[in-house]
Amino acid sequence: MSEPAPVRTAITDLYGIRLPIIAGGLQWHANADYVAAAGRAGIIGFITAASFADTAALRDEIRRCRDLCAGAPFGVNVSMLPKLVQGERTVEVFEAVIEEGVRFVETSGRSPEAYLPMLKAAGIRVMHKVPAMRYARKAASLGVDAVCLVGAECGGHPGLEMIGSFVQGRMAADLGIPYVVGGGVGTGAQVAAALALGADGVLVGTRFLAADEIWAHHAYKQRLIKAEAHETDLVLSSLRNTMRILKNETSEAVKLIEARGEGTLETLLPHVSGKVGRLAYETGDWSRGALSVGQSVAFLDRREPLAAIVARMEDELRATLSRMSGLTG
């Protein structure tokens, strides 16, 4: 049986995908298995470069992903710290991405301006992810190919302005370049809503955490399946690095430290370090660790292959578009 016709937007044209959905980085989980599953499902995902201890390991994962994708598109996410620090491997990572023939890059953190010439010269398309419109406008002025704008509902880092996806999704309509909106997106109806606002697609992260291709422990996935939208916390505002995470012992401890006015990198790092979070994914003990989870956790209802999640979202998207077309009939 043939596939349904693509839902065509500027984002599907940019990436050569069938549906206007981008699979979010998901930190440690964005390996070749997850990213290739996204590509085969008709969307696109990005390997998270920061998840690999060295550039050689990243190269190996890129090659493994290319084999698993069987011709489907994929990219690499390069998350940069807000300021350049000694020992940072950003240039080295970009050089590896170029040498490996990767066609798409997602950047986040600080401005990609310094790296755009080398990426553009290699023919790489760049999408920059930002938490607020002022950064989106700046990125557009620099010449990135697309912008991903995440709202306050997103897991991970929603920024400081905390404006919701529904509002930012419309504010970006005059950017002049393709853009996607993320944060709280987990259903096909929301994809249709984003398109109606003027966006060219959506970023989906938390909704995919229960996918079979995600290597996290089944107990962690079961906790997310049972979670409701209100079971996330905002922490690290004292560091001006707000993070939305799953409510647990760590989120409570961090909130108490910040409420006492003692929120510093020294006091908070033992609670929120990546090593603590990775242990939670490995063991299934979700009670500790700063575990990035967005409000779309409300839509997780079962463990299944990523392709099945995408198929359900596509059915919802097409049903919603059909219903909307009948409103003026």
Which helices and strands occur, and which strands form pairs?
Blueprint (H helix, E strand, L loop, with lengths): L9 H6 L5 E3 L8 H9 L3 E5 L6 H15 L5 E5 L10 H10 L4 E5 L7 H6 L3 E6 L2 H10 L3 E5 L14 H7 L7 E4 L5 H10 L3 E4 L13 H9 L5 E4 L7 E4 L2 H11 L5 H8 L1 H10 L22 H20 L4
Parallel strand pairs: 1-2, 1-8, 2-3, 3-4, 4-5, 5-6, 6-7, 7-8
Antiparallel strand pairs: 9-10
Please describe what this structure looks like.
The chain is α/β, with parallel strands linked by helices and 329 residues long. It folds into 2 domains: 10-213 and 300-328, TIM Barrel (Alpha-Beta Barrel), CATH 3.20.20; 228-292, no CATH class. It is built from 13 helices and 10 strands. The strands form 2 sheets. An 8-stranded parallel β-barrel has the order 1-2-3-4-5-6-7-8, surrounded by 5 helices. Helix 4 (90-99) links the parallel strand 3 (75-79) and strand 4 (104-108). The longest helix is centred in the last third of the chain and has 20 residues, at 306-325. It starts with 9 loop residues before the first helix and ends with a helix.
